[in-house]
User: Which sequence fits this backbone?
């Protein structure tokens, strides 16, 4: 029975609920919530609190726009209320073929797929077309059984959300739904006995720390 | 009881228009009368908008939330015009989609807050002129019915089972998916579904039969 053991911390959940978290990280939190009822309930509680503060917050002076608001109200009242079955029915999620299985993708990715893959050894990477102001880059990584990423560290953060398969590193073992955020200077050497498919976000090029892969450090965009 | 609550707030709302509107809002919200609007009022109004398309209830909601959403917009967006656009986008959505609010899933204010947060996210995304298709609704499903929240509401084994079944359902032809989702996730009757999808009852029945046959076949294979 799969168990999710690695969760976003409460600061991330708060920023997600407030809509202030970077979109690339929000995708990962959203995907985690689909599988984690605990964090999902927590986000509902945070939203309720944010709504409270909306009600109690200080109001800007609306005297200058009072007429505009009233006109807006009348205009909205003239527009039809829609009850389109499409609202209810369009919940299809994308699937990705991986190791002969069809893997249901998180809904947060459904307008960002399909992707094209680049392969390097046992690792295939697909960059997601997601423009970020902070320069972070979001990708899907598919690693074949027995594959891994050489020991490396990051100038910034590295986020990994497991979508399928499993992965191990010095810090633990991860499976679908697990949310792993490493801050810069933390070194890790992920390996995947059975292969894995994951969503990753990096905000700076990877720096390899041991052996020949260090040759790649000049070409940081390889895994970034 | 409802009637009495309405009367307390209703009579001034009818008299004040235009420039005195801002004054009216402030008078309504005056701290000396903190008991005037309670969460239960908001929920009743929203329900009346959904069920009776009540212009009166909607006007109350609008006059309560518009200054708050505008204040939020002034803090999160870049101009008065955009703050007003946020008011318009949010409260038009509330008017059009009130029927998607589910009282048992949280307070009315929380629902409206999430609609506003999502609209704000999409406006900020559009400003970046980003070409990718990430939309708030994919990160935080608020309007697209609650299939996903239903999935995460289940815990443990049930959740995993539901997710597996979702995988199977996804492989059905779209027309059959709609029927299965409508009946098993939204608890619609066959008749309701026929009306929503605007197809004869007999068609719904045969789609359901075909879908169930296919699902049974797939689940059988999975057990092998």
Assistant:
């Amino acid at each position: 029975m799969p168990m999710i053991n690695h969760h976003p911390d409460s600061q991330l959940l708060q920023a997600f609920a407030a809509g202030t978290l970077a979109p690339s990280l929000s995708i990962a939190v959203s995907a985690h919530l689909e599988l984690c009822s605990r964090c999902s309930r927590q986000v509902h509680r945070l939203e309720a609190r944010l709504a409270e503060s909306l009600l109690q917050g200080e109001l800007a002076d609306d005297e200058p726009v009072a007429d505009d608001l009233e006109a807006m109200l009348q205009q909205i009242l003239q527009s039809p209320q829609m009850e389109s079955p499409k609202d209810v029915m369009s919940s299809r999620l994308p699937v990705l073929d991986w190791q002969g299985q069809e893997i249901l993708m998180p809904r947060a990715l459904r307008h960002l797929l399909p992707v094209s893959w680049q392969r390097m050894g046992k690792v295939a990477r697909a960059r997601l077309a997601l423009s970020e102001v902070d320069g972070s880059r979001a990708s899907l990584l598919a690693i074949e059984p027995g594959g891994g990423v050489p020991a490396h560290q990051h100038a910034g953060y590295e986020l990994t959300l497991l979508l399928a398969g499993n992965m191990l590193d010095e810090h633990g073992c991860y499976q679908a739904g697990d949310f792993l955020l490493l801050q810069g200077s933390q070194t890790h050497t992920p390996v995947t006995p059975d292969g894995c498919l994951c969503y990753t976000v990096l905000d700076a090029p990877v720096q390899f720390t041991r052996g020949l892969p260090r040759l790649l450090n000049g070409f940081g965009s390889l895994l970034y | 009881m409802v009637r009495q609550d309405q009367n307390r707030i209703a009579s001034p709302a009818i008299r004040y228009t235009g420039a005195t509107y801002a004054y009216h809002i402030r008078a309504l919200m005056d701290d000396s009368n903190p008991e005037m609007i309670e969460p239960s009022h908001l929920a009743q109004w929203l329900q009346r908008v959904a069920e009776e398309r009540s212009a009166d209830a909607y006007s109350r909601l609008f006059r309560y939330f518009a200054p708050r959403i505008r204040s939020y917009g002034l803090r999160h967006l870049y101009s008065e015009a955009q703050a007003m656009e946020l008011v318009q986008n949010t409260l038009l959505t509330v008017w059009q989609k009130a029927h998607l609010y589910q009282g048992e899933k949280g307070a009315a204010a929380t629902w409206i807050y999430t609609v506003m947060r999502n609209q704000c996210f999409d406006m900020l995304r559009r400003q970046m002129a980003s070409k990718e298709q990430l939309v708030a609704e994919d990160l935080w499903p608020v309007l697209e019915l609650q299939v996903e929240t239903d999935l995460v509401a289940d815990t443990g084994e049930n959740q995993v089972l539901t997710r597996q079944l979702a995988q199977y359902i996804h492989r059905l032809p779209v027309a059959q998916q709609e029927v299965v989702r409508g009946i098993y996730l939204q608890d619609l009757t066959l008749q309701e579904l026929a009306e929503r999808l605007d197809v004869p009852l007999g068609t719904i029945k045969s789609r359901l039969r075909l879908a169930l046959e296919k699902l049974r076949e797939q689940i059988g294979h999975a057990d092998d």
